[in-house]
């Protein structure tokens, strides 16, 4: 899943980015509202973590412009403004959640998971495809009850495919939701990791779950 952090306090922005990447998220960071708006317009983020008190363009105006443009990306406001009026104003502008600083990182992660589930219309924290179970809370996967050892990148690919189970997911979509802005899209690293994931998921099983649609992309699910 891909997250944009718009936060002008550099130590916090760096800490958030590091923690989220360790959890397997692809993360872009912006230190001001104008750049944050540019990032949000250019990339299909799953969630934006947005401070309100930003230089150049404040968070409220950034959010207002996104919603006016029809951008429905899920936005979690993360701010020191804790008055009820501030919370109401942020939610009324179109924010999906509001978390006050200081905060517990585990709570932020839980709220992000909620927003990702909402983005893909998932109710349960565990995604099930045939005998495959993807636990989005623990970030683990099992097939036939057996734990699959996955790297952070392999898990990120699997979770996105699981949220889109049964659909053709293009290479571009996978890249945009699993890799951040600094990644090099011209390499074959995506195909390599899908290959790793396919071997771990399907080897030894009669029913294969990852399918390649030539010229289109990948599908996670039982064959028709």
How do the strands and helices of this protein lay out in sequence?
Elements: E1 2-6, H1 10-22, E2 26-30, H2 33-42, E3 47-50, H3 59-68, E4 74-79, H4 84-92, E5 97-100, H5 105-119, E6 126-129, E7 132-135, E8 140-143, E9 146-148, H6 152-163, H7 171-178, H8 189-202, E10 210-213, E11 217-220
Parallel strand pairs: 1-2, 1-3, 3-4, 4-5
Antiparallel strand pairs: 6-7, 7-8, 8-9, 10-11
List keywords for this structure.
single chain, 224 residues, alpha/beta, Rossmann fold, five-stranded parallel β-sheet, elongated
Can you offer a commentary on this structure?
With 224 residues, the protein is α/β, with parallel strands linked by helices. The protein folds into 2 domains: 2-119, Rossmann fold; 126-220, Arc Repressor Mutant, subunit A. Helix content is 41%, strand content 21%. The protein has helices spanning 10-22, 33-42, 59-68, 84-92, 105-119, 152-163, 171-178, 189-202; strands at 2-6, 26-30, 47-50, 74-79, 97-100, 126-129, 132-135, 140-143, 146-148, 210-213, 217-220. The chain has a 5-stranded parallel beta sheet with strand order 2-1-3-4-5, sandwiched between helices. Strands 6-7-8-9 form a 4-stranded antiparallel beta sheet, with helices on one face. Strands 10-11 form a two-stranded antiparallel ribbon. Strand 4 (74-79), helix 4 and strand 5 (97-100) form a beta-alpha-beta unit. The mean pLDDT is 91.
């Amino acid at each position: 899943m891909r997250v944009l952090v718009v936060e002008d306090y550099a130590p916090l922005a760096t800490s958030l980015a590091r923690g989220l990447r360790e959890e397997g998220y692809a993360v872009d960071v912006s230190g001001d509202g104008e750049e944050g708006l540019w990032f949000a317009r250019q990339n299909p983020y799953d969630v934006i973590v947005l401070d309100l008190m930003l230089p150049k363009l404040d968070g409220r105006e950034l959010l207002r412009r996104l919603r006016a443009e029809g951008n429905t990306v899920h936005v979690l406001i993360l701010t020191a403004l804790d008055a009820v009026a501030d919370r109401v104003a942020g939610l009324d502008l179109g924010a999906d959640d509001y978390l006050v600083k200081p905060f517990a990182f585990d709570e932020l992660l839980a709220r992000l998971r909620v927003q990702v589930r909402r983005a893909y219309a998932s109710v349960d924290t565990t995604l099930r495809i045939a005998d495959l179970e993807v636990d989005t809370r623990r970030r683990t996967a099992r097939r036939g009850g057996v734990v699959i050892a996955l790297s952070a990148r392999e898990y990120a690919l699997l979770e996105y495919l699981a949220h889109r189970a049964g659909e053709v997911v293009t290479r571009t979509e996978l890249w945009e939701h699993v890799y951040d802005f600094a990644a090099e899209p011209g390499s074959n690293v995506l195909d390599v990791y899908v290959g790793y994931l396919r071997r771990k998921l399907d080897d030894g099983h009669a029913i294969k779950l990852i399918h390649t649609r030539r010229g289109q992309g990948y599908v996670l699910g039982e064959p028709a």
